[in-house]
Design a protein that fits this description.
heterodimer; A: mainly beta; 4-stranded antiparallel sheet; about 45% strand; B: mainly beta; 6-stranded mixed sheet; globular
Chain lengths: ~120, ~110
Amino acid sequence: EAGVAQSPRYKIIEKRQSVAFWCNPISGHATLYWYQQILGQGPKLLIQFQNNGVVDDSQLPKDRFSAERLKGVDSTLKIQPAKLEDSAVYLCASSYYNLPGLAGGETQYFGPGTRLLVL
Amino acid sequence: AQSVTQLDSHVSVSEGTPVLLRCNYSSSYSPSLFWYVQHPNKGLQLLLKYTSAATLVKGINGFEAEFKKSETSFHLTKPSAHMSDAAEYFCVVSGEDSSYKLIFGSGTRLLVRP
């Protein structure tokens, strides 16, 4: 079974530039997540999609970050304009489905991440 | 609000000796808890998860964790460390709202000495 794919793996940009990341989840997984992992910290959820609808984007800085999941499969995360503090690894994850009865027990599968450096 | 605290930012053990990575959680409800491992330049991999079944959970690569509600702990253990265990380990709790988002601890870096 193919895992979660992400591209690019590395990106270096200057502040105020824009950047986009792409994620292709595991086939058949309805739920897709974007996380931000700053050096020395645990990942923090930015946005969660269920199919092509947003479930949670409460921690997404909406003045500069945007994400979409057209057709409920792959997804893009965009930053425009980038700031120095956006330097981080951006992780994409997917899970089969979030069933309320499981109380969050669904396993999330993570991609290798995109390492972003903003100069 | 839910949270996890990993009590050690770094743990160093000798190869062949036991591993103990400590985690305490805070949750209003019976939580789902996970341990993930992150090797350098690789994605996060699930080691094990607790979802209100058996309190002693066995995972991959010989790791196990015990859920102790009275102590609000979910410590990760392994009887004998291997060099390949050197990595960053994250204790994770599942959120209680409808998104069930994962809330990560700050991580424990495990160093294994030869």
